[in-house]
Design brief:
By secondary structure, the chain is mainly alpha-helical. The protein contains 26 helices and 2 strands. It has 3 domains: 231 residues, Hypothetical protein af1432 (Orthogonal Bundle); 184 residues, Orthogonal Bundle (Hypothetical protein af1432), CATH 1.10.3210; 55 residues, Orthogonal Bundle (Arc Repressor Mutant, subunit A). The protein is 58% helix and 1% strand. Strands 1-2 form a two-stranded antiparallel sheet. Helix 15 crosses helix 20.
Length: 529
């Protein structure tokens, strides 16, 4: 298997880069626009500066603003059971609701819980929500805070951040959750971050005047009056440049104090935390990303990939489902078939994974690899529809590992397959031309299945399926005849032929035939049993 140098990441990763990338995922997981937490962090640091906070507290404000909502997957599936699309409820208009105002909150919930569902089903959801909603809301907040603390600790942030994460849903007037603490009992960095998040929302939606009006209206209820006054006096400075296309460079430049860089081991630990964050979204995906990463790495080792590629495939395997959090748990948990609209949302999750990691130059190569876990050799995958030689060996291994791992896990629409059943399904995917046979063999061997070794090392990066096509091509079969022989479509054969020509550097059938003869490729190869 060829070396895939595109996955090698030599650039060091700042802790702030990784945490800010993580915050983009928590934006998706709360139904908010990406960079909400990033822009909130910029506002929070500027607000903290005009309020006279020292460097240590500004550091706490900075990281707390980025990490405040990374516990969002803790209660996602339970919340979706109660409300339907949990992301639609908390995003959109829900961004602007003052949740401490009972009348406003109740009005919003009545209009939006279960919105879009058939009337009888919506009535049941509304009844269930107003029966159990308050308890679930409080317990969900507590779980959210605890998960955020544990994930943040694993990322390697300063210990001073951890207790602050337990207060992110409290309010100045004591009507917050889960502990209903109030006033100055709420830590100052928390108070700054809370106001900053609301400022970002109203400034983004309606400009600086709307942000100032919101702050004054909520002074003494949601927010500390003294911080509101600091903001209102310095609103122009605090909100400067927030309308630029991306706040990414700004948030990295504004980090207070030392700027720690992650060691290799720290990055591995952080990737594990990210995997657990993504898998916590759904009860049936717990441990999925860890399983995919371990299987893909073991398969890569069997293919003798270099250590840098093995590290990349392991980390990409851990991060591959990060974009899953941007799709409602109500869709993932659906037992029946998906509608076209729901399926389109599902197809976006690899794209979300790539976009979350794309901002960081150091993490972008991992995101590019991770986002290819649903690509297929015949071009039928998503989100890019890559085919053949456009899919690197590491991505082929990741795709095969993801399929096998998922098959052995329960899903709402089917029970887990036994290992031998999963192996048989993987072989069918190979035969159909969707998965690479060499990658599938390596994954099956790594999973403990007996695999008959290939008789020779394949040349020019050709997969075993491509060798099968080349063998029939050399014997004079038409594309339609090859399709019938291999039980694949004529279009898939066309894909294979084009990629064979590209890989071996020819443009005609006679030259391809000569290449096959020269390299002894006319004998059939073998595959997994």
């Amino acid at each position: 298997m060829r070396v895939d140098t595109s996955t090698q990441t030599a650039a060091p990763v700042r802790l702030a880069e990784l945490v800010a990338s993580f915050s983009l995922a928590s934006d998706l997981g709360t139904g908010m626009p990406m960079e909400w937490a990033v822009r909130s962090a910029v506002i929070a640091v500027r607000l903290g500066e005009v309020a006279g906070l020292d460097e240590a507290r500004l550091q706490d404000v900075y990281y707390l603003s980025l990490l405040a909502l990374i516990g969002c997957t803790a209660d996602a599936s339970r919340f979706a059971e109660l409300v339907g699309d949990e992301l639609a409820l908390t995003g959109g208009e829900g961004q602007t609701v003052d949740w401490g105002n009972s009348k406003a909150a109740m009005s919003y919930l009545i209009r939006h819980v279960g919105a879009g569902l058939p009337p009888l089903r919506r009535a049941r959801i509304l009844a269930g929500f107003f029966t159990a909603g308050k308890e679930v809301w409080v317990e969900g907040s507590r779980g959210h805070c605890e998960v955020a603390q544990r994930l943040s600790e694993r990322l390697g942030v300063a210990p001073s951040i951890l207790p602050l994460l337990n207060q992110v849903f409290e309010r100045w007037d004591g009507r917050g959750r889960p502990n209903a603490i109030k006033g100055e009992a709420i830590a100052l960095p928390v108070r700054v971050g809370q106001l900053a998040r609301d400022i970002e929302i109203f400034h983004r939606l309606d400009g600086i005047d709307a942000a100032v009006a919101m702050a004054r209206e909520r002074s003494g209820s949601s927010h500390a009056p003294n911080l509101v006054e600091h903001f209102c006096r310095h609103a122009g400075t605090i909100c400067a440049d927030l309308t630029i296309e991306s706040a990414w460079e700004t948030v990295l430049a504004i980090e207070p104090g030392p700027r720690p860089v992650m060691a290799r081991e720290q990055l591995d630990d952080a990737a594990l935390a990210i995997a657990d964050f993504a898998d916590l979204k759904l009860p049936f995906t717990l441990g999925h990303s860890r399983g995919v990463a371990a299987l893909a790495e073991a398969a890569g080792r069997r293919c003798r990939l270099p250590e840098e590629d093995l590290a990349a495939i392991r980390r990409a395997g851990l991060m591959h489902d990060l974009g899953r959090v941007g799709v409602s748990a109500s869709i993932w948990c659906k037992a029946g078939g998906l509608t076209e609209g729901e399926w389109e949302r599902v197809r976006l999750h690899p794209y979300y994974t790539e976009r979350v990691l794309a901002r960081s130059k150091a993490l972008a190569p991992l995101g590019h690899l991770a986002a290819q876990h649903h690509e297929r050799i015949d071009g039928s995958g998503y989100h890019r529809g890559l085919a053949g030689g456009m899919i690197p060996p590491t991505a082929r291994l990741l795709a095969a590992a993801d399929v096998y791992q998922a098959l052995t896990e329960d899903r709402p629409y089917r029970p887990a397959r036994r290992p031998e059943q999963a192996a048989a399904e993987l072989e069918r995917e190979v035969k159909s031309g969707r998965l690479d046979s060499e990658a599938a063999n390596a994954v099956l061997a790594a999973a403990g299945h007996r695999v008959r070794p290939a008789r020779r090392e394949l040349v020019a990066g050709l997969s075993e399926r491509e060798v099968e096509v080349l063998r029939l091509l050399a014997r004079g079969l038409s594309n339609r005849e090859m399709g019938r022989e291999l039980s694949i479509s004529k279009e898939t054969v066309n894909h294979h032929v084009r990629h064979i020509y590209d890989k071996i550097g020819v443009s005609t059938r006679p030259s391809a035939t000569l290449f096959a003869v020269q390299h002894g490729l006319l004998e059939p190869t073998t595959s997994a049993v």
